[in-house]
Amino acid sequence: MDFTLPDDVRMLHDLVRRFVRDELVPLEPDVIAREAAGQSSYLTADEQSRVDARARELGLFGLDAPEDIGGSDLPLSALVGVNEELGSTPVFYLLPPDTPNLTVLLQDGTDKQKDKYLPGLMSGALKTAIAVSEPGAGGDPSGMNTKAEKVDGGWRLTGRKIWISNASGADFMIAFAVTGRSDAGRPEVTAFFVDKDTTGLSVERRIPMLAGWSTYEVAFDDCFIADDMVLGQVGQGWVPMQKRLDARRLQVAAWSIGAARRALEMMLDYAPQRVTFGQPLSDRQVVQVWIAEAQTAIHASRLMCQHAAWKLDNGTNASTEVSMVKAYASEMAQTIIDRAMQLHGGMGVSKETPLYLLAENVRLARVYEGPTEVLRWRVARDILKGKFTIN
After folding, report:
1. What is the rounded CA–CA span in Å between residue 146 and residue 135?
2. Burial class of 199 by CB neighbour count within 10 A (0 to 12, 13 to 18, 19+)
């Protein structure tokens, strides 16, 4: 078993690390100051434009997009390192196109849908959102109340969604609705592309979140969705959804690894400098244990992430492995960042270092794209039902 990264992938990771160091890390003071003042932590329009231009210049757009549409066609296993680097700063930035929605569009979209959305996704001009969770039901399909009724030439979509990221600026979203019931009475869910100018679609309110993020509540009031805007098969909406979840959960795990690594690096920088009661913190056994455990957990998470990505790249179902690493890595990162904050004392709990924002980002990561408890339940269920073999 060869763990050596190909030269081109290693060079890409080095390039993204320099990009983060040179373009994103210098923005940290301004982002931290805005969030500390109760404002958004997102990049401003000018910052976004400058960073996008530099990323495009470096050839970092379309890393996982097919070569025939101008991408680099890199596998998920190559993107694990890319996302780890992006997660090492609290300055949130996605390299276009957004991997999860690109994944479902490429695998389940029609030629017409690809022609409509791919060019804008590739250029970064189109922004997307995903609308699954509902008030009182979360992402549980059995509690989903949003419905789509078949009409001549399309569907009438009615319902409400909540906790929707990017809804206010999205050019289109992928919305999920109940379109029928199985013989056993379970809801059959269908995925639809919904453009921002669709009549009856409205963004009802902004919901402030941790880390200066925002989500939104969205209403669909008798929205007409044409038949050619169905994503995948009618009643089989969880097929593209699972593919999207696998891609995003893997991405979240890699971001968490990056955040944990940044916290460990800050511990390693600070511990030898800070002297208490005549000894540097690096000589304290508890600090040495924290450092050893942090590196061990980061290493384990990275290997788990790479293995899950490798399985997905080879067309093998890896949903159980993805659930494991997303839950493990986000919880792991929370522990390491918390210890880094403790080691830094008063400075660690101030809003003058990246630690608090890293902590809030990771706290969010423990909930979105599947809470830790749900993912662990799924892993246990798969083991107990024999869907996942322990070797």
Report:
1. 10
2. exposed
Q: What is the pTM of this model?
A: 0.94
Q: Hey, which bits of the chain come out as E strands?
A: 128-131, 147-151, 154-165, 172-181, 187-195, 201-208, 214-226, 230-231, 275-276, 279-280
**Contact (Cβ atoms closer than 8 angstroms) between residue 95 and residue 158:** no
Interatomic CA distance for residues 133 and 175, integer angstroms? 10
What tens digit of pLDDT does each residue of 81-103 get? 999 999 999 999 999 888 788 88
Integer distance in angstroms from the first to the last C-alpha of the chain? 17
Q: What is the DSSP string of 60-111?
A: -TTTTS-GGGT-----HHHHHHHHHHHHTSSS---PSS-HHHHHHHHHH--H
Q: Write the pLDDT tens digit of every residue in 44-69.
A: 999 999 999 999 999 999 898 888 88
Residue 139 pLDDT level (bands cut at 50, 70, 90): low
pLDDT in tens, 283-314: 999 999 999 999 999 999 999 999 999 999 99
Q: Give the helix, strand, coil percentages of the chain, each rounded to 5.
A: 55, 20, 30
Strand boundaries in 209-283, DSSP class E: 214-226, 230-231, 275-276, 279-280
Distance of CA 184 to the CA centre of its chain: 33
Residue type at 219 in one-letter notation: A
Q: Which two tokens stand for residue 66?
A: 């097919």
> What does the DSSP 8-state code read for residue 318?
-
Distance between CA atoms of residues 244 and 46, nearest Å? 30
Q: Tens digit of pLDDT for each residue in 158-178?
A: 999 999 999 999 999 999 999
Q: Which residues of 342-363 are buried (b: 16+ CB within 10 A; e: fewer)?
A: ebbeeebeeeebbbbbbbbbbb
**Cβ atoms of 24 and 95 closer than 8 Å:** no
* pLDDT greater than 70 at residue 384: yes
